[in-house]
Design brief:
This protein is mostly helical and 402 residues long. Helix content is 75%, strand content 0%. It has helices spanning 10-33, 40-59, 63-81, 87-118, 131-144, 154-160, 163-171, 176-186, 193-216, 220-241, 243-275, 286-289, 291-305, 311-326, 328-353, 369-387, 390-397. Helix 7 (163-171) runs antiparallel to helix 11 (243-275).
């Protein structure tokens, strides 16, 4: 049976509210910072497409509809990455589109195989999983969720995309892969446990190695890109190990990462606008230029690291507990990945706000108050969701959904 099935479950409502909120923050940030005003309409249409596709994937139980929304997201990202029409941005947009389109085509073959085997596209009715189909779908999932080695399109995309769209990119589009993984593969008992064990190790390897790459990066956007790959790996790890801690921890991690990484991307955009630079080695001390931004980015980076009482602390703790419950070796891997997260965020923040002095000859613009307000809201949300952590936890676990 082919039907576009939507279900307003707690999982979908939780993610939909988050994605709409991130989209709103991106919209407000764009009002204050977006250059190339002649293309504003294109930007806002692209933003709407990304938010709509994210909400659609979060709410849909139909694989065919999810695939259509998946491709809408790919198209929107292609336009967003090439927004400034420069050679580098157009090349990055084309590369991102080709990689994602090819991976989605492979995934579509797997979806069709599942349909032939089960006679339905409805995820809740699929009970027979051919492993070839599962592997093909997983290729699409790992590509969209920028998991190593299929992450190669993300760095050039981050370098080219407008900062106003970067937050929406980090908070919504990169989560579509892990959402499908949870919806289709992790939320049932029809696939061999060995498959999830392999995915868990892929997630840990991706998180550790890309955490190391972030530690060695000097370009701000490169660092954000590698950080994203590392943190998405943590989300995938939670879903792969399963159980209440793994699944709920992964969901809360999507919340923590979407809020914090969007805020950090907007913060980096403010720094680029203030200084005209994007290299840690050449940036002046930003703390004296904007102490407010320094405090806000400290909170956001702290949530990514997992400092108490930020929401990232509870998300990371739950994923680690869920991982240790399954395997001590996986637990050690998760802790190593968390250590790399601490190291690269410490270097990132120290180099930005404490490493160098701001001399009188250094020309630094005043930050946009609206842009700062957006970063403030995201940092405040990261803090409040940590302080009142039991609210999203109770909401997600009510009714035994996990």
């Amino acid at each position: 049976m082919i039907g576009f099935d939507f279900f307003l479950d707690r999982f979908g409502i939780f993610l939909s509210a988050l994605f709409i909120f991130i989209g709103l923050m991106s919209f407000i940030y764009a009002l204050a910072t977006l250059k190339k005003k002649g293309h504003r309409l294109e930007f806002y249409i692209t933003l709407i497409l990304i938010v709509t596709s994210g909400v659609g994937v979060a709410l849909s139980y139909n694989l065919l509809l999810i695939f259509i929304l998946w491709e809408i997201s790919t198209f929107a990202l292609w336009r967003a990455i090439g927004f400034y029409r420069q050679k580098e941005s157009l090349n990055a947009a084309s590369f991102s589109f080709i990689i994602n389109f090819m991976a989605a085509s492979i995934m579509l073959i797997g979806i069709i195989m599942l349909f032939i085997e089960n006679g339905t596209f409805n995820i809740s009715e699929i009970q027979s999983f051919d492993m070839v189909a599962v592997v093909l779908i997983t290729i699409g999932i790992l590509t969209k969720s920028v998991t190593m080695p299929l992450h190669v399109w993300l760095v050039p995309a981050y370098k080219a995309i407008p900062s106003a769209m970067g937050g929406c990119f980090a908070g919504i589009a990169e989560n579509l892969g892990v959402i499908l993984f949870l919806r289709l593969l992790a939320n049932g008992n029809f696939i061999a446990p060995q498959f999830f064990y392999i995915i868990a190790w892929i997630a840990i390897t991706s998180s550790v190695l890309m955490g190391g790459a972030a530690l060695l990066s000097n370009k701000l956007r490169n660092l954000l890109a590698y950080s994203t790959v590392s943190q998405i790996g943590f989300i995938l790890l939670g879903f792969a190990v399963g159980g209440t801690y793994g699944l709920v921890g992964g969901m809360i991690y999507i919340l923590a990462h979407a809020l914090a990484k969007s805020g950090l991307f907007f913060g980096v955009g403010i720094i680029e606008e203030m200084t005209g630079k994007d290299d840690l080695n050449s940036l002046p001390c930003v703390l004296k230029a904007s102490p407010t931004l320094g405090v806000l980015m400290a909170l956001l980076a702290g949530s990514i690291v997992g400092f108490f009482p930020m929401v990232g602390f509870f998300a990371k703790l739950m994923v680690v507990i869920g991982t240790v419950t399954v395997s001590g070796y996986l637990g050690v891997g998760a802790i190593v990945a968390a250590v790399f997260t601490l190291l690269y965020n410490w270097r990132f923040y120290h180099e930005l706000f404490f490493a160098k002095a701001l001399t009188r000859s250094t020309k630094v613009k005043r930050p946009s108050y609206i842009a700062l307000a957006v970063v403030f809201i995201l940092a405040l949300a990261s803090l409040l969701f940590g302080i009142f952590f039991y609210q999203p936890f109770n909401y997600l676990t009510a009714g035994g959904g996990f």
